[in-house]
Structure formats: C-alpha cells, structure tokens
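Much of what follows relies on a compact textual record of a protein's fold. With that in mind, consider the following protein and its fold in token form.
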Amino acid sequence: MVRLFPRDRNFLREHRIPCVPPLPRISHLVPFRPLHLFESWSPVVSGYAQRSRALIQAQLAHGGFEPRALVTSRQFTYGAASVEPLEGLGERLRLCRPSPWERWWRGLRPFTLDTRALERHLEQALDDWGADLVHVHWSSGIGQAAARVAQRRGLPLVAEVRFDLASAATSQWLGTSWPRLEALLRRRFESHLGNAVAIIAAGPALTRFLQETFPSLRERIWTVSNGVEGVRPMCVARDEAWRHAHGLAGGVVVGSTSNMLHYEGLDTLVRSLAQARTELPALQGLLVGGGPEEERLRRLANEWKVPVVFTGRVPHGEIPGLLAQIDLFVIPRRDLPITRYAGPLKLVEALAAGRAIIATGLGDIPDLMADGAGVLLPGDSVDDLAKALVRWGRDTEGRARLGDRARARLPNLPTWTLAAQQHAEIYRQALTR
C-alpha cells in the first residue's frame, strides 16, 4: 500500500484537489495495465521527457500498475535514435521507427507525423502486450491517433494535457500571441479530448484554463501536478573546480535550465545581464539546455559581450550538479497564454535545490513560490529583471535566505508518489464507468 506524504496532503488542500485514499489490491483490475503514448522520452532532455519518465517510475514503485510505454518517432526529430531503458519496464518500452513518408517529409518539416503509421504501432503494441486503457500524453495528431485506436479497441482513453500547444505553436512560429488563430488551432489540436473518459491537466492553472475553454468537459478534468523525488531536497555542493574550468570562478552566476524556446524569454535574460553588468560586472551567465533559440542566444550574448556559458543539452542526471553552480536561478518567461497556464518543472527542481529564484509571476509560479520562496516580477521587462539581478547579485546573505525559503517550500510541494496515487483513482473510475 502506498503512503501519501504530508506534503501531498498539504498540496491537495491548497488546490482543493480531492485526497484519495490508497487503493486496496483487490480493486478492479489492479494491477492496472495502461498503454502510455509519449511524444518523446529520455535521453531527450526536456521537462516533457523528464515528467514522462518520472510518472512511469512512480507507477512502477506504486506496485499497483504494469505500465506499457510507446514513444513516437518524434524522438528522432530531437536527435535521439533510441529510448533510455527504465528498470522494471523492460521490453514494455518501445520506440516507433519513422515511416518512409516521415523520413521524406522531415527534411522539409521536422515535426511531421504519420498518424496512420502511429496507429499501426499502437495496434501492434496492444496485440503484443494487451492493455486495460490508453493514456496519451500529447495533443494534435498523436492524441487523435490514440483516440481512434482506443475507440476501435473499445478501450477507455485517458488524455493528458501538459501545456497549451496552440499558444506554444504561435509563439514559436510568429513570436507573439494571435488569439483567433490559437482558438482555431486549439479546437483542432484538442479535438481528441471529447473521446476521453478522463482528462489530466499538468497543474492547477492549466486545469482552470481547460475548464474555461471546454466547459462541457469540466467534470472529466483532473489535476496531476509535477512532483519532486522522495522527501529530501537536492543536496549537491557547489563545485569550485567546475566553475573555475568554465570561467565562472569568483563571479555571481545567473542562470537557468531550460528548453530554449521563444516563450521562455531567455533573450530577456541575456539583455538584462548586459544591462546589470554595467553596475555589477561580477554577474555571469550559465544556460543549461538546448533548442531552436540556442544559436540566436549565443549570437546575442556575443553581440552584447555578456559572458555566458552554454552547456547545450545534458542528461537529466547532471541537472542537480549544474543547479548547484547557479547563484541566481531565473525564469524570465514571456506573458503568453502558454506561460499563463503552466507550472514549469524546472521551478520545482530549483526549489528543491534551494536556489535563490527570480521569476515572472505567471501560471502556477506564484503558488509554487509562496511564502517568500523567491522574487516575483510583474512582467518580462529587461529593466525590472536587470534591477533585480543587481539587487540580489550584491546581497550574498539575502540570496542564502531566499534559498532557505525555497527549501522550506519542499514539504508543500507534491511528489511523484501522489501522481501515481491519483492515476490509480483516475484509472479505477475510467474502468468502472
């Protein structure tokens, strides 16, 4: 039987999420046998891939699940030609190979997806492994393919929404928000939700957004937030030798761990660093991650003569060590629909690592940073961020106090154990409808 940590009860109480008791082993078809469909998986480095892996690890640790996982051929678009094994999952983890149609089109459009080929992969996985339900973790063509296969097989569909894909697309393509276009895209991208017996939102703000956008589906929507591992904070010491080797010794390191996309606002961080360094030259940058904006950010740092270390994509296991090298952790997200309804996993990790955090107050960020566990900025202004960098860059003791308050938030953060507990109740209801 699974224990619900006190922090989980606190989180559920804060966000008015029903606290479900541990399920007895005799409940329905326990162990549950969900077939998960993921867009990508480690070694791809992203919050999406990390959440996917953590959710499966939690289900395996729970003992009431026998999960199966299928990863789409988008994995190859992200530069990974394999999936990282997970102990306990074994042969029930499979990567879809690109179809000839996908291989041809991806030379022009890297994110092209052959939904017919994906449906064949899903059908084969169900034939080989069997499953009680289909749990899809992406929208658009992936969600629609899962919905069609689940309907043909007479299986319940559980659909997870992790962010507003329509807003993410317009932000990356157009560099801004275009509400009318987003509304049209959202109707298409999320059309599979009507087929789902349960809809999972990856945070309270996203739950509210989905309830407002799809009022007829509000009774099916659950909140399963990002969690932290175990019950202890990340305790990794600062590595002075590493800082010296990368030219960061003696400075105040300002940084972030991020998928480098337009809406993350990392160009604002680079410009703010340049401005702040006119008053406090000791400020230096460390950006961990990669993505479409990386080359532009490198050029910007060079143009503004800002000393920034770019690590590129790194395995997630290296993140705690790199977080320990950052004195001021910054989340400079732009104010767009995608950021208004999201709770970044990197923030949960920075809180657990006890970092001094500066972030724009969007989405779930204010709730996660309650009780003074960081500095909230009203918007993504270069001037406001530059002033905050100078203020806290000069105050070593103040940064330590912020870090202590961040760690103090840990008992109020949800765990992945809670996520598995919620999955058990969601699946039970889906299978007994």
User: Anything to note?
Assistant: The longest strand covers residues 252-257.
